[in-house]
Amino acid sequence: MMTKPFKRLLLTGAAGGLGKILRDRIKPWADVVVLSDIADMGEAREGEEIVQCDLADKAAVMKLMEGVEAVLHFGGISTENTFENIMQANILGTANIYEAAHKLGVKRIVFASSNHTVGFYRNTDYIDAGAVTRPDSFYGVSKCFGEQLASYYWDRTGLETVALRIGSSFPEPNDRRMMVTWLSYDDLEEALRRSLFATRVGFTILFGMSNNDVAWWDNSKAAHLGYKPKDSSSQFDAKFPDSGDYPAPNASVTYHGGAFALAEVRYKA
Amino acid sequence: MMTKPFKRLLLTGAAGGLGKILRDRIKPWADVVVLSDIADMGEAREGEEIVQCDLADKAAVMKLMEGVEAVLHFGGISTENTFENIMQANILGTANIYEAAHKLGVKRIVFASSNHTVGFYRNTDYIDAGAVTRPDSFYGVSKCFGEQLASYYWDRTGLETVALRIGSSFPEPNDRRMMVTWLSYDDLEEALRRSLFATRVGFTILFGMSNNDVAWWDNSKAAHLGYKPKDSSSQFDAKFPDSGDYPAPNASVTYHGGAFALAEVRYKA
Amino acid sequence: MMTKPFKRLLLTGAAGGLGKILRDRIKPWADVVVLSDIADMGEAREGEEIVQCDLADKAAVMKLMEGVEAVLHFGGISTENTFENIMQANILGTANIYEAAHKLGVKRIVFASSNHTVGFYRNTDYIDAGAVTRPDSFYGVSKCFGEQLASYYWDRTGLETVALRIGSSFPEPNDRRMMVTWLSYDDLEEALRRSLFATRVGFTILFGMSNNDVAWWDNSKAAHLGYKPKDSSSQFDAKFPDSGDYPAPNASVTYHGGAFALAEVRYKA
Amino acid sequence: MMTKPFKRLLLTGAAGGLGKILRDRIKPWADVVVLSDIADMGEAREGEEIVQCDLADKAAVMKLMEGVEAVLHFGGISTENTFENIMQANILGTANIYEAAHKLGVKRIVFASSNHTVGFYRNTDYIDAGAVTRPDSFYGVSKCFGEQLASYYWDRTGLETVALRIGSSFPEPNDRRMMVTWLSYDDLEEALRRSLFATRVGFTILFGMSNNDVAWWDNSKAAHLGYKPKDSSSQFDAKFPDSGDYPAPNASVTYHGGAFALAEVRYKA
Amino acid sequence: MMTKPFKRLLLTGAAGGLGKILRDRIKPWADVVVLSDIADMGEAREGEEIVQCDLADKAAVMKLMEGVEAVLHFGGISTENTFENIMQANILGTANIYEAAHKLGVKRIVFASSNHTVGFYRNTDYIDAGAVTRPDSFYGVSKCFGEQLASYYWDRTGLETVALRIGSSFPEPNDRRMMVTWLSYDDLEEALRRSLFATRVGFTILFGMSNNDVAWWDNSKAAHLGYKPKDSSSQFDAKFPDSGDYPAPNASVTYHGGAFALAEVRYKA
Amino acid sequence: MMTKPFKRLLLTGAAGGLGKILRDRIKPWADVVVLSDIADMGEAREGEEIVQCDLADKAAVMKLMEGVEAVLHFGGISTENTFENIMQANILGTANIYEAAHKLGVKRIVFASSNHTVGFYRNTDYIDAGAVTRPDSFYGVSKCFGEQLASYYWDRTGLETVALRIGSSFPEPNDRRMMVTWLSYDDLEEALRRSLFATRVGFTILFGMSNNDVAWWDNSKAAHLGYKPKDSSSQFDAKFPDSGDYPAPNASVTYHGGAFALAEVRYKA
Predict the structure, then answer these.
(1) Is residue E267 part of a domain?
(2) pLDDT tens per residue across span D163-206
(3) What is the mean pLDDT of residues B241-261?
(4) Could you list the residue range(s) of the whole structural domain that residue C244 is in?
(5) Within A119-217, where are the H helices?
(6) Which end of chain C offers a freer environment for a tag, N or C, measured as fewer CB atoms within 10 Å?
(7) Residue E132 burial (CB < 10 Å; 0-12/13-18/19+)?
(8) From which residue to which does any coiled coil extend (chains A, B, C, D, E, F) (predicted)?
């Protein structure tokens, strides 16, 4: 029998949209997959441990991470919300994860960052990981925070991070913008695999997108990961036929961040 | 029956070399294709309207463009000539097209620009759309002018342009330089399709080349168009066998602009 | 009598080290200077209003900022501390300032950021405001957060910020590193003046340093502010005579962030 | 007696605003200064020749330039106008100057270009001569044309040009924008002197501004000219006192091109 | 019968590891392949000439190169050694080759350079041919020397060079680092073919690697060669299964130069 | 009495042109200045030791450097010569210096490099230390070698170097090119002082020029040295009056390297 790469691998946010998708896909990577979420996740299956945990609770996070070798950090709030809620879940939660990881000797975290860190670039801008961030929401700001914190821990303590700026990871694109930002589940899995098993990553930013025809993001600064997406949103071209309606009826195509970057949908606290 | 993207689409220069190639290929994009040229174009076929028109005639251009939703601007002189002729056909003609487009509310123009805007780069230079232009002829200067005018109309009025810097669009490459600059007719059509139907383009420069082995131009600044050429000049490799004759017998390979950039062929006015 | 530029100008952190220095210097800029701090500031003098206020208290901040036209945001913790303390004072405090400013129509904030946003660059690196941040402490991460939040408010709401990345603002340099990072009080005042009164700043990052011989930071991306420092640390050259001791006895000269970036001084929570 | 550098030096546009200023200042540079304009210039003084000439008249330009060794090309329309007028004066006129210069062996032209070639950059953009042009007017487009033509003649024929992108050359700044773009007459003269007498210039773009506190333009790509402005608009600071009115009452400060770039002042043909 | 591109083509270092691989592969390119080495190479086969020659012997090199049209310069020491040995074989040897080539009118040399010219970049750095060199050994320094000498001969005399920075050219990758640096023999041959027969190369640097998943080097500055590798180390993925051992057991993956860049293996003279 | 920074400081090439100039100027920096040259240097004065030494003699160099704390390496051939001579004096000589420095624990070397490392750039090119080298002579290639060797020793062993690319260090400029490249003796001394006493330099390249009006080189990548030249060649403007002779009578102004880069003066071996 083949040895699995990890003994214990933690997935936070396991009850979330992507968490559910990943639950089975990551099993081959660890003897035990630890699944955590603030929500109930039901029964543990074979090879799983389930821990209901509020990431804003520092002591609980320390306990959660005992014996863990690597973390897929998908926990937190994944859309716009009040600043206070975002701060507890995404800022304090992530700080607790990193401090525990450092104290317990975890060597690598894959952090689920977001395109909303650069959501205010326009669709005619083609950027790479060296572009200054332009977040489009409190949510986006919190993801910038997570990246900065990860950079700090790498420079200071040697704890490595791949920050995966996820585009739109759904079964298929639902609007024209997602034709650009789409990340298939298979490619998401491959991005995580590359991020976990590359020999040395330091602090690396990887844009999470499939091999779509249109691209806003250049992954050459992450060429050392060897991530090669296999899917393309072009298989869904027929859903969005050619049209001379300028600009697109869904104006969200103006910015990388889509609707997040439109003034009228700003969060009303 | 499927609705076509445009009601009226104008192709200028329809009697020219590329105009003739495009005439049938663009029909699926509009209920009525308006074909204009200073030369006679014979009878209109179904779904066409034919207008003989000198683009230097401002009033005629205004009339030509009534009801038009988008323009493929291929009109003008397509090779070197006296400055005076170039000025009338390419500078004044293009100015008339843009002013009419603005006044009539046309939203997008695909402008047939040329590699001769950058013809004085050398074949060891690899440039993108941000490189300063280095025209190699009055013709090349007039194409720079068209691009600048398009930039102005975009910044000022919101009229969008894709400037397609066409390499060498012929049935097949005729010399070593065209192995680099070749743009197959199918890829030309695809470049136009992407330019017309991308959701938002602002002022975009796209180098018009197929997926050839050797490349002088980097289209990453137009990644938002999603143009993916399908042909390659490598299918014609056997026409140009390996040879140790340095430099190539046809010295035009020295510059991007080929023979246009050679001193001895300067236009004698 | 000359009219002052503002009716009400807010200085947060007015009881802090730089707050005390600025208290009198900013008086010519407003009819009323509002001074806030979590600490006691004694009696208000003429032309002042004093408000003791915890910036983490959202309602108190809203009240504090009523009628204010511009803010010099120096409040918060200005050195390394526990993450929890930093989060309350610098992250939540800054978020409250920006949200109140937006709601109340304040048009510009000068944010006291820090060189610790880029503290992990080495002393042989010469960077400008486009360099990716490399914070050296929780404190530095919190300043990155403030900059990102400011960027978001600018892109979203039009609220302008100058983020002043202060080097070392003291009466004179105390070690070799400060010969590089020193910002005299007069130059600090001038940097604030330029930041407040430039006609349009959007979101601008300005490195706060005097015209010292050695420089790690390039302010050309803030050339529109017209900040021209008049002092130089070279007046203190005699304090640090030439020496062949490599590296400098005070090893903090290795990193932009000085001692903050040294492993042994990491905050012990 | 000292020999003058040139026998014959041509100044076009000699009756224009700057032409009048330069008339006496350039006398030390040539035995004979040839002054041309479409307008009447009165009597020639000692060391001058006066030629009334429409630059759109090719034959007249050939005659005008006989024996001339270098040209200061200030002729044409210097503000916004109809495209047709701009084309005759600035496009055809400049083409005639260059073709005559080439045919007659003139070796260098200083071309009065303009900041309106880059007028659509914003006041927070700091650009150099490698930035893509963004003209703000037909006038600006015609200056881009002149630069492109000059680039072509240099690459093709070896005729050298310094394109001087003049900011605002007036006795003193008249609004906040001119505090940035101001070029004193002494500095203008020095820029011309450097441009004429540098040993080798190829095709060089020089931004024409004094040593003002605020700068939008970086002249490092013209460092081989050695232009060191001696004046600064800061001597006029008192005309524009500090103010918290954001943005400036004169909104033209938003763009490099000032009022030229504002939609409401677009030329009504 | 087809004419071969060259009459005489020289391969130096023909008895070395890659020399033996190339011996048959390059035969189609020349009527006579001249094979040289300091070691014995046995009998010449048809279409070969064999010359035993010490490249540090200037007169012998002149004789060796008579009638040669192009050179594949693989001679010299191909691993770390004393500086004195490296100097004789790689520095003096290469100088002799270039001087003879210049005197005899050879027009192009393909120089076997090495990734050890940039061996001190880290595996998270993605560099192109414009990156400053960072050699990791005397061997690497000698390859930098060869590139500089080639640059000099190109600028001065017009003798063209492609410097091929070979990664790891072996039958298959032997460690994780070689998964990145691997250059298959077929791709090596193709790189040489492109380098020899491109129409104009000036002084070009090409990184010699196959189309592997992970890449540290960007060949866009050599896009004019049209080199398209067909193999990929991914065919050997199973040799190196996923593992959570950070960093890789073979620490050589830290630097581009692998073990060459590790302090403990420094050459002990 | 003030302590001097070094006990023993070595100056190689002490009998050369610049060596003689520096002999007295460097005395304040060390208790004992060790002066070496292949030529006779006469009697040692107080505070000096004189060692006649061929740098190509490894054992002699080891002996020379015993007890030395820092080196000003000006030894070798300082103009064009046969490759063989250059190799012995500049390549082998420099290798011996570095190996001895490493073995003896010397911490810093200031290496007298040259503008001839970049001599084939044109006078319209403005470059910084990141520009790829383009040597113009065997001499220039040998200086590139020295820089590469220094880079290697820094990355490998921590031995620091400032490579000072000296322009033209003479009492005053002798031709137009030297108006650009001139480095006054006072500024040379200051460049050495900064290079020796900066707290940390790693491997730094500094262009050695005074504060001349025209500049070809940008020292911003060496901003951490704090070198501020005080002289300017403009004091000699009158020696080179304005002239319309294009190009300059002394054609050497075309290239950074001046006459070194002209084909007709290539070294005849």
Answers:
(1) no
(2) 999 999 999 999 999 999 999 999 999 999 999 999 999 999 99
(3) 78
(4) 6-260
(5) 138-157, 176-181, 185-197
(6) N
(7) middle
(8) none
Q: Is C169 exposed, middle or buried (0-12, 13-18, 19+ CB in 10 A)?
A: buried
Q: Which one-letter DSSP state was computed for residue D208?
A: E
3-class DSSP assignment, residue D225: helix
Nearest residue on chain F to C256, alpha-carbon basis: F224
pLDDT at E123: 92
Find how far residue E242's CA is from the centre of its chain. Answer: 31
Report yes or no on F266 lying in a domain: no
List the single residue in C with minimal CA-CA distance to A260: C156
Please classify residue F107 by burial: count the beta carbons closer than 10 Å to its beta carbon, then call 0-12 exposed, 13-18 middle and 19+ buried.
middle
Supply the Cα-derived Rg of chain A in whole angstroms. Answer: 18
Mutate to test the interface with A, among C96, C155, C254 (most CBs of A within 10 A): C155
Q: Which residues of D touch F213 (CB under 8 A)?
A: 226, 228
pLDDT at C253 over 90: no
- Contact F242/D at CB under 8 A: yes
Phi/psi of residue E245, nearest 5 degrees: -75, 105
Three-state SS for E89?
Answer: helix
Interface residue C198 vs chain F (CB under 8 A):
no
Q: Is F29 a domain residue?
A: yes
- What pLDDT, on the 0 to 100 scale, is given for residue D245? 87
**Domain count of the fold of chain D:** 1
Contact between B5 and A243 using a beta-carbon 8 Å cutoff: yes
Q: Quote the tokens at residue E100.
A: 């003879």
By C-alpha distance, which of D121, D97, D92, D130 is closest to D111?
D97
Structure tokens at F195: 């290079």
* Average predicted confidence (pLDDT) for chain C: 94
Three-state secondary structure call for residue F92: helix
| In-domain check, residue B233 | yes
Confidence category of residue A101, pLDDT binned at 50, 70, 90: very high
The answer to whether C25 contacts chain D (CB < 8 Å) is: no
Q: Which residues of F62-99 are buried (b: 16+ CB within 10 A; e: fewer)?
A: eebbeebbbbbbbbbbbebbebeebbbbbbbbbbbbbb
Nearest to C6 among D176, D244, D248 (CB): D244
The string of DSSP codes covering D92-150 is IHHHHHHHHHHHHT--EEEEEEEGGGGTTSBTT--EETTSPP---SHHHHHHHHHHHHH
The neighbour count for residue C24, using CB atoms within 10 Å, is 12
Average pLDDT over all residues of chain E: 94
What's the token pair of residue E46?
A: 């048809």
Residues of chain D with Cβ-Cβ distance to C198 below 8 Å are 214
Task: Enter the ipTM.
Answer: 0.95
CATH number of the structural domain spanning residue F17: 3.40.50.720
